[in-house]
Write a structure and sequence with these properties.
- By secondary structure, this protein is mainly alpha-helical.
- The protein has two domains: 34-154, no CATH class; 160-239, no CATH class.
- The chain is built from twelve helices and two strands.
- A two-stranded parallel sheet has the order 1-2.
- It is elongated and about 75 Å long.
């Protein structure tokens, strides 16, 4: 119940399920990923060589946004609201707002001047129109990071840890059946938790399975030695190192 009185910012791509969730739960704010927008331009330039210069120009604009925001975030004090930040932060913040406004203006000028239903409209102009219209439609979510410097411009940090499971799911348990997908989800969750806590997954798993074997094939009665948030520092240090297999 308390969660509905808060605003939760979700950094995500433009997948429709996120949009549906935000419509149903008005306390969720979607912060769309700029890396996916950047990819739109790169894909267009790769598919249509005639658009390469145009696409790289837009990629450069996005790169400038990242650069200005990185400088701004270095000056950001998370304990203070934006209006109380330092003058160096405010200077970069103003530059960021100006750059966002300039991008929005250039986008809108093209959209207003182009009619995709015009029989004289060419393919390349329609490709530009589609990309810039998507940019316009998602602008509110793409602008969340401006007023919330603690929010990253993309969800790359969230996607990198799941890259191996996503790319490997067709080669190992996880896609073949319901039970295997459940097993994969559990194992990925466990291993990622251990990795985030700085533990060596191989050492942790060996230690846990050994304890199961010593308990006649059942989970240990006391799980605290295997839960990072309940381990003492000595245990945590021990399991952070590779196992001794000699």
């Amino acid at each position: 119940k308390n969660i509905q009185h808060q605003k939760i910012i979700v950094v995500c791509d433009r997948y429709s399920a996120y949009k549906s969730l935000a419509k149903q739960l008005d306390f969720i704010i979607l912060a769309f990923c700029w890396a996916h927008v950047r990819r739109d331009f790169l894909d267009a330039g790769k598919k249509y060589p005639e658009l390469e210069e145009w696409a790289l120009c837009w990629v450069g604009k996005i790169g400038e946004l990242y650069h200005i925001n990185n400088l701004r975030c270095k000056e950001f004090d998370q304990k203070l609201p934006i209006q109380w930040q330092s003058s160096s932060f405010k200077k970069q913040h103003e530059k960021l707002v100006e750059k966002m406004d300039a991008i929005a203006e250039e986008r809108d000028v093209f959209i207003e001047a182009h009619n995709p239903d015009d029989p004289d409209s060419d393919l390349l102009s329609n490709v530009k129109y589609k990309i810039l219209t998507s940019l316009q439609n998602h602008w509110e979510g793409l602008s969340v990071f401006v007023d919330h410097p603690e929010v990253p411009m993309d969800n790359n940090n969230g996607e990198r840890p799941i890259r191996n499971p996503v790319t490997g799911r067709k080669n190992f348990y996880g896609s073949g059946s319901l039970w295997s997908s459940q097993l994969a989800a559990i194992m990925f969750s466990i291993f990622q938790t251990m990795a985030l806590c700085g533990l060596n997954c191989n050492h942790w798993l060996r230690s846990y399975l050994t304890a199961c074997a010593e308990n006649h094939g059942k989970a240990p009665d006391d799980l605290s030695p295997f839960l990072p948030w309940k381990m003492d520092e000595g245990r945590r240090h021990q399991l952070s190192r590779p196992p001794n297999t000699s």
